[in-house]
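Readers of this paper often ask what the protein records in our data store actually look like. This encoding replaces a full spatial description with a residue-level series of whole-number codes. For reference, a complete record is included directly beneath this paragraph.
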Amino acid sequence: MTENQGPAHKKDLTRRRVILAGGAVVAAAGVGAGVVATASADEESSASSGGATGQGEACYRLTSETTEGPYYIDADKIRKDITEDKEGIPLTLRLKVIDSGTCKPLKKAAVDIWHCDALGIYSGYENMSQGGPGGGTPPSGSPSGAPPEAPSGAPTGTPPSGAPGGGGHSEPTDDERYLRGTQLTDQHGYVEFTTIFPGWYQGRAVHIHTKVHVGGKMTEAGYEGGHTCHTGQFFFAESAVLDSAKEQPYSTSTTTRTTLTEDTIYDRSGVTGGLLKLSYRKGRMARGVTGSITMGVDPDETHDGTGL
């Protein structure tokens, strides 16, 4: 993955709307002790106890910018729990946003996340997503098939309209909005989402999309105005993905899986590139996983992820 090297764009003051549905500010608590913890620059996992997010952290450099992908919907609900009725391993996602220049937390920034379900399907694009059982081989440490030749935010199959490389946006094809949501960071820069561990689809490693918006404000209609200062993706250690593949409904998927090292969007820079710190009990992953990361962003820049 190549980071956005271009000059800062003019701030996009286009009106943004999100539907109000629940509380917007959530304080992140410390991560409970876990037997398995994962996150490092070289994608290796190690056993240790989980610690509080941000404990002893240094000032983070800029988090990698990535493509928005074709499945972003700028109408996500303001909510903590984005699961709706989707089955999967419970995932608590704890995110912190800081100004990479001052190291101070960004307060009242709007953070979007969206991802596919346990079988690789995106809400809003169910008939375009190519996930679920059938076609391909069961997941393994060394999946068959060559890695994709170019970055793509879309699964293989019927390609979305727009430019290649995952930057082209496709209009939603249905009204589903599961596994999508937005929250405002609290005074310490934290947000917390309740969701499920994502599945996989052909051509991409397991990931979660994110955007950070600043300069807007909450109104009766939702979060409006401002600009997008960061567009990125979160990634999962291979050991955790293989553990997830042992559980239902992930174990029913026969879709060819792309490993983290094969993924053409992950830039191999560990936490800076979006690699989550994961914590869960060994042999009991089905009970839940906690993922955390600190994102260093430049609030004065505009990175909407559509030109990557």
